[in-house]
Design brief:
Two copies of one chain form a homodimer. With 887 residues, chain A is of the alpha/beta class. Chain A folds into five domains: 177 residues, Acyl-CoA Binding Protein, CATH 1.20.80; 87 residues, ATP-grasp fold, B domain (D-amino Acid Aminotransferase, Chain A, domain 1); 135 residues, Phosphohistidine domain (Glucose Oxidase, domain 1); 306 residues, TIM Barrel (Alpha-Beta Barrel); 39 residues, no CATH class. Helices cover 46% and strands 17% of the residues of chain A. In chain A, strands 14-24-23-16-17-18-19-15 form an eight-stranded mixed β-sheet. An eight-stranded parallel beta barrel of chain A has the order 26-27-28-29-30-31-32-33, surrounded by seven helices. In chain A, helix 20 links the parallel strand 26 and strand 27. The radius of gyration of chain A is 32 Å and the shape is elongated. Chains A, B: This is Pyruvate, phosphate dikinase.
Chain lengths: 887, 887
Amino acid sequence: MSNKRVYLFREGDKSMRDLLGGKGANLAEMSNIGLPVPPGFTITTEVCTEYYASGKKLPAGLMEEIETALKDVEKDQGKTLGDPNNPLLLSVRSGAKFSMPGMMDTVLNLGLNDQVAEGMIAKGADPRFVYDSYRRLIMMLSDVAFGDRYEGISKHDFEHQFYDLKAELGVKEDLEVSADKLKELCERYKAYVQSKGVTFPQDAREQMKEAVEAVFRSWNNERAIIYRRREKIDDAIGTAVNIQAMVFGNMGDDCGTGVAFTRNASTGDKEVFGEYLMNAQGEDVVAGVRTPLDLNELKLQNPIIYNEFVNFCNVLEHHYKDMQDIEFTIERNKLFILQCRSGKRTGTAAVKTAVDMVHECLITKEEAIARVNPDLLNQVLLPVIAPGTKYDVIAKGLPAGPGAATGVAVFDANRAAEMGKGGQGQRVILVRADTSPDDLAGMLAAQGVLTERGGMTSHAALVARGFGIPTVAGCSSIRVDAEKRQFTIGDVTIKEGDYISLNGGLGEVIHGQVPVEDAKMTGDFGTFMGWADEFRKMGVRANADSPADVRKAIELGAEGVGLTRTEHMFFEGDRRPVVVSMILDIDNPETRAAKLGELLEFQREDFKGIFEALEGRPATIRLIDPPLHEFLPNLTELTAEVAVDKAAGKSDAAKETMLRAAESMHEINPMLGLRGVRLSIVYPEIVAMQVRAILEGAASVIKAGGKAVPEIMIPLVGHVNELTTIKADLEKTAKAVEAEQGVSIPYSFGTMIEVPRGALTADEIAVEAEFFSFGTNDLTQMTFGFSRDDSDKFLKPYVERKILPGDPFESIDRKGVGQLMQIAIDKAKKVRPNIKLGICGEHGGDPSSVQFCYEIGLDYVSCSPFRVPIARLAAAQAALGKGVSDK
Amino acid sequence: MSNKRVYLFREGDKSMRDLLGGKGANLAEMSNIGLPVPPGFTITTEVCTEYYASGKKLPAGLMEEIETALKDVEKDQGKTLGDPNNPLLLSVRSGAKFSMPGMMDTVLNLGLNDQVAEGMIAKGADPRFVYDSYRRLIMMLSDVAFGDRYEGISKHDFEHQFYDLKAELGVKEDLEVSADKLKELCERYKAYVQSKGVTFPQDAREQMKEAVEAVFRSWNNERAIIYRRREKIDDAIGTAVNIQAMVFGNMGDDCGTGVAFTRNASTGDKEVFGEYLMNAQGEDVVAGVRTPLDLNELKLQNPIIYNEFVNFCNVLEHHYKDMQDIEFTIERNKLFILQCRSGKRTGTAAVKTAVDMVHECLITKEEAIARVNPDLLNQVLLPVIAPGTKYDVIAKGLPAGPGAATGVAVFDANRAAEMGKGGQGQRVILVRADTSPDDLAGMLAAQGVLTERGGMTSHAALVARGFGIPTVAGCSSIRVDAEKRQFTIGDVTIKEGDYISLNGGLGEVIHGQVPVEDAKMTGDFGTFMGWADEFRKMGVRANADSPADVRKAIELGAEGVGLTRTEHMFFEGDRRPVVVSMILDIDNPETRAAKLGELLEFQREDFKGIFEALEGRPATIRLIDPPLHEFLPNLTELTAEVAVDKAAGKSDAAKETMLRAAESMHEINPMLGLRGVRLSIVYPEIVAMQVRAILEGAASVIKAGGKAVPEIMIPLVGHVNELTTIKADLEKTAKAVEAEQGVSIPYSFGTMIEVPRGALTADEIAVEAEFFSFGTNDLTQMTFGFSRDDSDKFLKPYVERKILPGDPFESIDRKGVGQLMQIAIDKAKKVRPNIKLGICGEHGGDPSSVQFCYEIGLDYVSCSPFRVPIARLAAAQAALGKGVSDK
């Protein structure tokens, strides 16, 4: 920790963000490169830490250091804080290392008091300007300095008093209120504050001290904490405080204030883009009291100032080599820059800006790649609500599947499938309490899915991301009543057929229709992803279960398939009844053989299609994984139906048979039950059929002159003997198919590492497995003992209360799950140094996890097709050493 | 591998069991110490391995080696194999390293053929004896040598032909059949064999070769394989073959054969104990064709031979320093010893024999401790079916809770509780499809429990072992119909009120009543366990949830409580409704507070009672662990009930409220859901109440002049922050209670390590935890991804097919689960070298697991009270380096 607590702007520079915060560092930088920045100084973030460490006390000596810096500013401006004859007024603003716009407090016009106001007027200042500034100071300082300590002081009350005054006067606009009346408002404000037990401080230094403490305290106000949690900003870093000579946008009609981006933050177009208000202070632009004007208006009204501003924009872009978000004030036709920072932008803008800046020789390709947050690419790829649309959010759930969707609410998957099918279908949103594999057809036919229960990796969410269906899951504020075909949120009831919309990326549920626009795959995007591929060293595959998925994945840059879930194929159309009738007579080998014979015909075509679509790229195909009871109806519902029938003296033999099967197959913890390789050991015929189908499909592609590279993956292996046992059987099938078909197929056998014991004994398993794919969904479930279907209730509070740094189903938990992966890799490489290593859990599309996968030496990541570009970019960033580090 | 393949008896000794098998080594040893053993030689176990390795071919040169050894025997006996004028006859017997009685094949009287038979008679041999021996040879050799290669040759057919012959002759006993008729029988036998395609070999050497190969082949007959699996004998070790000059018990009335134990194998009493038959060969004693006589009869009939035999028994016991199981033959009043081996015995006999032999100065205390299989102690402690009782086993399930029980079948837990309650109650056996915590009262009131479903660690099994209730679980051949109050097994229907019995240790379900005897805690047992405690270095505690359990555990030698499951207390009597009403309004803090206030009163008394019973010993008390929905009715049943009501136009508000609660709390994988520390973080008041109750209970004991050492254990911790968070709250409660009560309580906080992530991050967790207790049940579930409630369906085939070496819920899986334990210990000791380490999973009472716990340095193991002596003995054996190693 340095001893120096206060830095004049000329003492700092942009590299000092840790100490001076982003705003302070940039004010210093801009001062130093000669931009018109009002002079000032920054109290360091370390002081904030000291303030909290000492129980919210400013450190001894700080006020003296401030005084010294202040003297410098006073000298520069030729004005003195608190001197009625020639007063310096100050702004006091927060500024942490990372931008937290609007989350912390600001006090403007500091230094004004009754005397100073009169003094300024006496010296010729416009009384209206003076009292407008004074009333703002009283409101802001009282709100931020006392609002959290004196009950009942609220900004709202101040606004109301101003509103009442305007009403008394019969005017609408702030600017219509005269100087006298603003002075009266100041009196009312002071009286209000007094009535709450505080005397508004007349002493300028007392004001300053209160303002500094208020900014420090605002670091831990509720909205700042929430914002940091969402943005994953460390709570410990603290904020700096920037104290700066005021410049005034509210001195008259030759004054103004505004904010602008050096490029269009939505589209990335190279054009200065912003809003401003004349005769106003900064907050007016944001607050929406007056409607700000488009910056193009300034071009017409005041081309000189406008051109000067555009010039400053160019200077700043060239200096910072990035698009800037700039605050400015015009005081009596003189332009001041009050802040600049890297501008937040949409994914589309991020990509376009990065590509353009490379073409403009501002940045290198590496910098371009490093600069775009991979998660932003989602926005580039998905349908979005037409920019600028206003809409009515009635509930928020988990952003389970990004993208926007609009359609009529439907509460039954079959009805949704019926209504939504084909291109001709109606646009529907399937609304369910939760979804099961039963609902798949309905989900696929829907524009979007909304569920009341289930987390980010619930069935609905997995399907959503797998198939790119905009989905809001776990929206616990709605109550779905499937029977009544409606859901309610408080008083609002949405009935079947009512239009709703979803904004999946934000978890928003919207009342009514919204205009939805399709993704635009611009040339810039292609260029950008091409660069990413130049740098990246790790492969990117996709999880895809159908030829259509595969084609989409390849279009998005996948180099193969990292996971084909063969069981999804069992749910489709004609197949389900075959599967069910096999299950109902599962212990009869003849039935099993007959039904598997039927399924073989289907599956062979499935795989053939996938290999054709892959055009020679490899496909890791996972043999059947879920417990068989997933194909049967819900036990509870079926029990109730049969009980009701029985009570009514009815009897339905088929239903009762189904119930007996569901009962006998019921599992208390299906996640840890008869599934994966266990199922294959108990009923080996199913996987034998699947391997035959895979290899016959591959053979027919090869015979037609194509190429097919099947990597057959056995799931849920925890003990090498499981793999040894099943592989021995399957190798026989494989050899038989090769012999029958008369072709050689470059197949291999491997396993998923998704059971902790599999990772712990990887040295044994790698003897048998030619490749490992980390199934980090299940590995996370078992390593933590968290069921992803049931963890909503505690994962949310865990993350909120920082018991966990984040949702381990989103980003790999490096210390636990990651440790197991590392153990597995170390052990496996000892016995098979060239073992192919991949990941096919949902984490394969999460940038932080991609970084980790790169660090531990995986050969590829695999994710849902729509996340392929994200993974490609994240992998490139990892290779460049610019990846997302652990939180 | 040695080059020598054949050892004369004089070339071997008892240390050569690996090479010569147990029988061969002991025959050699007995020869060398001068006992009357007919001369012979042994073909090594290595030859068996070679035989299989070369595709069932005898190695080249073997027959020559045999010939050399045979010459030695011929010389000794002055007879020649195959010489009609002076024939040597041989026995060919199997003999592996470990005794596998009756599992493999034997051929006696080898060397007989048509010519030799006539020659022997010509030289004066009794024709009846000659043809009796010949017919036995034809039957035995044909059966073992050809039975597995020629379809239709079966021992059964031979026996039928003899039976038919006796019927033709109108006689009943074998001895009534004349020499001529036996000769005729030999002809019939040869013709029968011929009809199946084999000519019975007349060449003695061909007979010998066939017999040797048959013995090798019998190593892999079905019953031998099953036996080895049950006894966990390695399939690879192979059998030796013993070829020995015949001595004949069937030469006349001065001949005989028998088997005896040097002590009573049931009681351990020091008395020779056995059976014999005059004029018979060995198989007759075993086969039960004739009823053998008690050896005491021989004492009367032939005191000289009897005394000589008793003398040999003493010689052998002193030589082997263990109780022996001996085969003998009397040929013309001369006694021969044909085999000796360590005698199998009951637990009671094992303990008594060991103690007696120490007192007899035959063995040391260490040897006594090493010699008793800890699992045998079960038999010493539990009620048993009165020895000698014949009973009718109608089904077999898993031996979930050892001990015998008899009572009337009852199909409802409440009814069982009603009928069985108090000392006055009827003896009932509770029969359920499966059990849930709801059934606890009924289970406790029952003599025994029988379930159709559920594995060795299902709810029923856990309760069974915890409370010492004889239980057969997962008896899948029965079908329970609770509604009809009956169960069926095939055609048999047992209705409520019918008597059944259980033999829990063997998983037997018995029709009707059987006499059941209580455990006898003899003085020898106490002496023996005292010695165990002298040697053992690791502590033994018990899992106990009530003062009665604690007292039982202490009586059985527990040094404290390693696990008190506080939730069991929530199910009892008046408490359940309080718990349920709290759950129904769980989100209302006022209800929670009120109901917890009521529960506090109960729990304080619970803990006070436990501390009193412990008399100052420590108690590890686990805070609430199960998901709250376990306290609610079954969702499926409730849904059906409400649906039926609704269909009938009825409505029961209370039931519907309950249903809504059950629905909203329902979890898909409750094992991985909202339970353990997660529950405490979401609803911290419950554990705050529990900690208060624990410490108030402790305080009242301390204030009364006693001692109480509560170790408060927080379950299911996977991330240190969980522990940090909850511990901070609970420490406050603890300090508050100390202040209120004005006493200092030596409490500590620790955690269960039962989630893989907990083990992997033990270095972080140990900073907060003063002790670890390995919860190996859950750790095994999560490490393997096996739900113990659902794993029956695959665990059984896994163990049968050797995919797993054993049930990991029985013995700790050292490679996987054990590796995690080792990781946890290594990491924890780095940050807290003196951390107290224990285990409280079911494995704490399993000898192999106890050995492992000793190896990795745990301070104590904890198990159910009835397994405490087993754990004490296993811990002593571990300390002596004689523990049960990994399988």
